[in-house]
Amino acid sequence: MNGRQLYEHIGKPITIVAPMVDQSELAWRILSRRYGADLCYTPMFHAKLFATQEKHRASMWSKFDGDKNIDRPLVVQFCANDPEYLLQAAKLVEDKCDAVDLNLGCPQGIARRGKYGAFLMDDWDLIFKLIRNLHDNLSIPVTAKIRVYDDWEKSLQYAKMVLEAGAQFITIHGRTRDMKGQKTGLANWKILKHLRDNLPKDQVFFANGNILYSDDIQRCIESTTCDAVMSAEGNLYNPGTFWTKDDDINKKFPRVDKLLREYFEIVKKYNTLPNKISLKSHFFKILHAFAPKHPELRPLIGCMKVHQSSMQEWEKIVENVESIVEKIYEDPNIHEIDVIKKGEAEEWGGTYKEVPYWRCQPYFRKIYGEVLCGDQLKVAANDNPINEENKENRKRIHEKEAESPNKKK
């Protein structure tokens, strides 16, 4: 199937759980689908290790992953710098997913050292070979997730190259490679719209970046004209970010005790190593606004160990949280304080919301110890707006492309 056929085959998804290292594992995907996720990506798997080390593969993948009854539609993502290892890894999962994705967006130091993810942006020839080898030899489609450059035209040519290599879906994160940690800043939806407008009209295009609340899903679609919206951090701290069916507060901003219990019951049912590896991280993220109000919880979670702590020990933490929240709801004024307060419209287009600390909510990264508002943050690729000179350059590039023979598809 080509990209549009695949997109329709899997139900035209609108909300997508992003691929994240040890974070978008099976249990979290099952939970996220209950809160509105239409399509899920696996965590980023290291292709060479996945293909050659059975022990490593067992820590990443279980017999339940990709199960047609509980875990589809699904895209499996790999990072790689060797076409053959990538193909070997993909062959191991091609009958358990709907597509295989190449990670071209990871900006972390480990990706720099290993020469994969966003650090392949310096080697277009290798990227082409990685994608084309999958495209030519897999029975399922290959897709790709990329980041932008500061240069809008270079970003466009990059996206076109990725598609020409054989990618059927393209997900574009509206941040540059250096935007991470303290330098994360804001994704640029304007460059995403520019790329969408200048790629083939039938190209399946997913936008990634700047999703705080469910309101932002439709705003992103309207701003970028993308087919669907992917979220990583937004989904991790509140899976209700994907709930767009109605205004049910318990779906959009689930109580931490209810969500923690629901997630933990899924892990108990599918008690696999990949799910257990992610437990501690998910507990901390679900409780990120709650734990500071109840500091006794942090050391309880912090001392838990993947291979040593029992499910009974984790159960005690869940029960502790449930007990605390139960006392909160004994307040006779709970109906007055258990509400979501919407702020004024911000310059960046959205609004902030005041959410009770016992409900899941966005995480705002501190920049040098301070939480900054959107209009104080750097915007990706913001120094290169499309001007007349760029338009002329683009016109010349398009004319040259029209004169050139097409490469083999």
From TrEMBL:
Q: Where is this region: Disordered?
A: 382-409
UniProt biased composition (Basic and acidic residues): 388-409
For biological process, the GO terms are: mRNA processing
PROSITE patterns from the UniProt entry: UPF0034
State the EC number(s).
1.3.1.88
Family label: Belongs to the Dus family. Dus1 subfamily.
What name is this protein filed under?
A: tRNA-dihydrouridine(16/17) synthase [NAD(P)(+)]
